[in-house]
Design a protein that fits this description.
Radius of gyration: 35 Å
Helix content: 25-40%
Order of helices and strands: EEEEH
Shape: elongated
Distance between the termini: 117 Å
Region (Disordered): 79-101
Number of strands: 4
InterPro entries: Ig-like_dom_sf (IPR036179), Ig-like_fold (IPR013783)
Largest sheet: 2 strands, antiparallel
Strand content: 5-15%
Mean pLDDT: 76
Transmembrane segments: 51-71
Biased composition (Basic and acidic residues): 92-101
Protein name: Immunoglobulin V-set domain-containing protein
């Protein structure tokens, strides 16, 4: 059955954006299409793109902040381990078998 169907959406809003699937019942078998993405075209999309780039910027900022905290913690832990090491004290044992004059 090489039939074609179309979906037309007028006055698209941001909440309409997403992935749409075509589902059909063919000979008592449910068939699902591969899906179509509804996205904003380049006309009038500067507001939508601004929010995407803003989220990307905030995400990278958070990633850098987490990395800075981890690196600082690691360096502080390394410094504490090196300062807590006490120098080894060597003691000399006097040999009782030696003759002293």
């Amino acid at each position: 059955m090489q039939r074609s169907l179309a979906l037309k959406i007028t006055s698209v809003e941001e909440r309409d954006l997403g992935l749409y699937y075509c589902i059909a019942n063919v000979n008592t078998h449910l068939t699902v299409g591969k899906g179509t993405i509804l996205q904003v075209s380049s006309v009038g999309s500067s507001w939508f793109l601004f929010h995407h780039w803003y989220c990307v910027g905030v995400g990278f900022g958070l990633l850098i902040m987490v990395l800075a905290v981890c690196i600082t913690h690691w360096k502080t832990k390394s410094n504490k381990e090196t300062t807590n090491k006490t120098p080894t004290a060597y003691s000399t044992k006097k040999d009782n078998n030696t003759n002293s004059s």
